[in-house]
Structure formats: C-alpha cells, structure tokens
Amino acid sequence: MEKIKTHRDLKVFKLSFEAGMEIFHLSKTFPKEEKYSLTDQIRRSSRSVSGNTAEAFRKRRYPKAFVAKLSDAEGEAAETQVWLDYALACEYIDTDEHSTLNDKYDHIVAMLVNMENKPGNWSFS
To answer: Residue 93 sits in which domain range?
Structure first.
C-alpha cells in the first residue's frame, strides 16, 4: 500500500477529480442558454468535491474541521447528482452517461462518509 502524503494520493480525491473533469467535458455540449445556470452549477459543484476534500486533508489534525470539510464535499457531490438528474431530464446527457457518473458520485459519497465516521484514522502527520 502506498503512503498517503498529500490529498492527491487519496482515492476519493482522484475519483472526484476524474469525475469533475468528465463533467467539464460533457458540459461543453450543453446548450448555450444553459451557460449561466446548469453548466456553471454542475461544473462548480463537481469541482468543489475535490477542492473540499483537499481542504479537509490539510485540516485532518483538527477532527471537527476535518469532518466539516468532508461534509461540505459530500454535500457538493449530492448537489452534482441533482444537476446530473436535470441534465438527463433535459436530454443533454443519455442514461448511460448519467448512470456512470451517478455511480461514481455514489462511490465518492460512500468514501467521504467513511472518512467522516472515522476521523481518527486520518490524523497522521
């Protein structure tokens, strides 16, 4: 097992960054009229998952702050799932794209919840 030195070594960070980039590329195909609504919202929330995860990692010495940032990341992941639901309902993405990304965010949420439930496991230097 590789030693975790930075947030970039966390599986949840890697998966959330990957999913955020997939959403970025997918959202390039959304209609222009969605630029200031759905496109911006889904890009912002998807990027916030990895951003909040990175912040949480830096705050891991302080369990309450660590859990709070992980909770923020979890909330952003759930928000991203809602925007994916809208993209599907508006027929901007197909069911396969929706299913694949939704499953990734389910895994991300599960990993974040696991970390939140065991903050002591992450308080290494």
So the answer is: 7-120
pTM of the model: 0.93
d(Cα 24, Cα 22) in Å, to the nearest integer?
5
CATH of the domain at 86: 1.20.1440.60
Tokens 């990027």 correspond to: 47
- How many structural domains compose the chain? 1
Which residues have C-beta within 8 Å of that of residue 54, sequence separation ≥ 6? 7, 13
Q: Which residues contact 40 (CB under 8 A, 6 or more apart)?
A: none
% pLDDT > 90, the chain: 88
The residue written with tokens 């009229």 in the block is 33
Residue 125 belongs to a domain? no
CA angle 14, 18, 24 (to 5 degrees): 145
